[in-house]
Write a structure and sequence with these properties.
The protein is built from three helices and no strands. It is mostly helical and 99 residues long. The chain has one domain. The chain starts with a helix and ends in a 13-residue tail after the last helix.
Length: 99
Amino acid sequence: MRTIYYRMMVFLAAAYLLIPDWVLAAGAGGTELIVVADTRRVSWGPEKYFLDVYNTNLTLFGVWCLVLTLFWGMFLGLLTDQIMKRTGLDLEHRTIVEH
């Protein structure tokens, strides 16, 4: 029974991915789309730097996104911990009661 279920799921996933090609909804092989950020009206330094990095080096832009997301998440986590401690919710010294 499980093998029939897994085979049916694989068939449905393949059909879902291939249906646009079957009904020609994917088009006839268009040209590659190039996405760039418009920097003509930007004058603020950090914003212009990140837009230029996005336009020229996507790998460096990805690294910057990773680093900034890491620090932003760390900041929000520490801020939430401080708020919870000030409101009396101490999650470090809690007892787990199982029913």
